[in-house]
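hey so i finally got around to running the thing on that chain from the lab meeting. sorry it took forever, my laptop kept dying and i had to restart like 3 times. anyway pasting the input first so we r on the same page abt which one it is
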Amino acid sequence: MESLGYLLQGFETASSWSNLLLCLVGVTFGMFVGVLPGLGPTAGTALLLPLTFGLPPVSAVIMLSGIYYGAMYGGTITSVLINTPGESASLMTCMDGYPMAKQGRAGTALGIAAIGSFIGGMFALAALIFVGPFVAAQALRFGPPEYFSLVVVGLSLLVGLMGKSLVRGLIAAFFGLALSFVGMDSSTGTIRFGFGIEELEDGFEFVSIAMGLFGLSEIFITAEENLNAQAQKPPKIQNMLPRQDEWIPALKAILRGSGIGMILGLIPGTNSVIPTILSYSIEKKAAKDPSRFGNGAIEGVAAPETANNAYAGAALIPLFTLGIPSSPAITVLLGAFIMHGLTPGPTLMQKNPEFVWGIIASMFIGNLLLLIMNLPLANVWARITMIPFKILLPNVLIIMILGAYSISNSIFDVMAMFAFGVLGYFMKKVQFPLGPVLLAFVLGKILENSLLKSLTIFGGSFAPFFSRPISATLLIIAMMIIAVSIYFGYKEKGIASDAEM
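ok and heres what got predicted. didnt touch it at all, straight out
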């Protein structure tokens, strides 16, 4: 009951005209930077950080938080419409969101994404209000071995994304891991695979790889096929909500995605990629016809988008209660806290309850604003896919170049994006899956850091990975996932061979 009383006080704080306006500015700007390839929650939040110097702490963080979860949904729009994930968490949405757009159902994809994001956000808020402090305290039991094992689970789920050939998928995954090792070794400071190039000392940027492999490669493929196609008048797109027979599977996916995102968001140090991979893989395994996934299955959009937004909200719990950021965007928020004289941690909710609960209440308002903004506008976003390619191509290229350049104001990032675009084009031509490359790149850095920390703490011994209960359980789950995936893969291959005979 005490939490509910604080929550009512938080709504009183968040519903002042100035804070309502700042929340609206935050989610609107977040949507804007999320739609632009190359910008995302981290860049958008950092971009407006200097503008908050003269604002009260609660007002400043309300606006920055709005940018954070607004950009999370904005990345959905580029994933669905132009197959370009603005950040790693939007990658899984490309799998079925873009095929839905190509089928003329972009409005439906964006509509179910908005609904799922809202419901996922509400689940995260419930966790913030009722179980946040307790669960976050339990998360202290997670050490480097547990983080390592959790990433192994995430990598094991890549088996489901390997495409038609397990060998090609494994090659793609190992290539992604190799890319993650480029740059400075976090433990020794040694530059690896730098080849004397100064820009490689910090490794490759995620945005350059993502936009190149998924965005530019798709532009090259489409240009090859449709550059001279006659422009057609865009039809009026309707049915922004799912068909009647799609509601039940979509809602089941949303509920599962909410739980997955909320639980993983409570664990400090996890990455937003893991809940989206896990939710997508679970839906694919649970589906009666898994072949629909990758071809426009609505559950393939609903589940990862819900998990993404649930994770985004729940990830604030370790920040509030432990002072631990769980993603780059949350790290920017941590900087905003400190800049305004606040120290996130166990005492924050006791010493500054009006601040914490004001932020929590503003998240409810912000998620409601996003739902109101996106459902009516889903038709507008979907029409972008109908723009003639000759008009869309130069505009998308300009946005991508600006986005890649804005990472560190370096032409090298733009060149890297084009290099990965050409690589992605040829990989698609020879049917190498792109998903494992990017996902292994993101997870590889976490895998390496947690492994090195574990070996340093335990004197080079691997025994703690198997003797610590949580770590051992996660490793067993990973082995089971791999074994089951390989079994069903060979079984489907055997069935296909029998059918050909």
